[in-house]
Amino acid sequence: MQETRPLVLVTNDDGVDSDGLEALAAAAGAFGEVWVVAPSSEQSGVGHGITLHRPLKVEQCSGRTYCVNGTPSDCVWLAIRSLLPRKPRLVLSGINRGANLGEDVTYSGTVAGAMEGALRGVPSVAFSLVGRDAFDFSWTKDWVCKVIEGMEALQDEGDLLLSVNLPPFGNGWIRGIQVTRMARGLCRVDGHVITTTDPEGNKIYSFAKKDILSDLEPGTDVYAVMSGYVSVTPLVLDWTRYSISGALEQAYALNAHNPKQSAVVREAL
Ligand code: MN
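# manganese (II) ion complex -> structure
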């Protein structure tokens, strides 16, 4: 009987032509047959958006590389449900040109691509390389592989979703891998809105960018990359805040017995 090779799906949010995607696809080859399904244009900052109001087009760029005129989530959804011959063993997203640290994770198309994989039941990892303009992906392979190998030891856990940030310098400088938590605070944009005027005299707005970073609490993703470590943050799919569910339930129970409110409800009936 012919053995079927496991499939690895690779996507990103910087677009199918990104050198970070190429680097990740090359590393992914160690884990199975690589399929690339990525957005045809840059989708950074789109978060977990999906395209509902227009049909999507898929173009086969070469062999097992496809591009989609949609978001990273569209790509992963289409790949798993339609394009790939069978369910992949892994979904990898990135390597993003720039960090996805702290609250920036919630806007990230890179992380959302991996989140879509995890929601479809496939262990998934998002990779981002910290930096601004010049990105050197040539050294990243060993660390990408180490992170994936580590995660594979947890296969039985289910809902595996990791956000990984690589420091902006190469092999020989990196001190190791640190498992971290998301820092609070924004990393690549600060709180300011820049207001200017366009040539027609209309007010236009943009978000001010900032450099990493103010949050230097030990244990956070930001602290780890600033200290020379590869940051690995395990993320959850279930956003429920169980720790306050009981207290909230109690508060509503008390509310329900408020006679004044009950009277209002009775009257409304
Ligand atoms: Mn990006």
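# post-check
The first helix runs from residue 19 to 28.
Residues 13-14, 44, 96-97, 110 surround manganese (II) ion (CB under 6 Å).
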